[in-house]
Design brief:
Length: about 120
């Protein structure tokens, strides 16, 4: 089930930031977008790359990203069935942001060691 979005954003200064963050606010969404940057990836490969994400959580995050138009899902009719996920054109516009988050995380890994 896709989670409901805010029906309206408070258009005070910063509402564009709120709108953008609301699209990638799940724990795994940025990770999924990062792993899709090099091309289509199948579900189980995404799950392997993402580490500790559960199948249910990954499914929910993928559904939300697809509903928001950031990724596309392609179903191949074959035996066994195959599904691939890829960035949509709009999702591709987030890559500079995802790369900036990765660079910031790499530079500040010491913050995570304290946890």
């Amino acid at each position: 089930m896709v989670k409901p979005r805010h029906s309206r954003l408070d258009c005070a200064p910063g509402c564009a930031v709120e709108a953008a963050i609301s699209l990638i606010d799940g724990k795994w969404k940025a990770v999924i977008l990062y792993h899709l940057q090099d091309g289509p990836v199948r579900f189980n490969e995404l799950r392997r790359r993402s580490g500790t994400v559960t199948q249910r959580m990954l499914t929910n995050q993928l559904r939300e990203l697809e509903a928001d138009g950031l990724i596309e899902r392609e179903i191949f009719v074959q035996v066994p069935p195959r599904v691939e996920y890829r960035l949509s054109e709009r999702g591709g516009t987030l890559l500079p942001i995802i790369e900036a988050l990765k660079a910031w995380g790499d530079a500040n890994m010491d913050l995570f060691a304290r946890r």
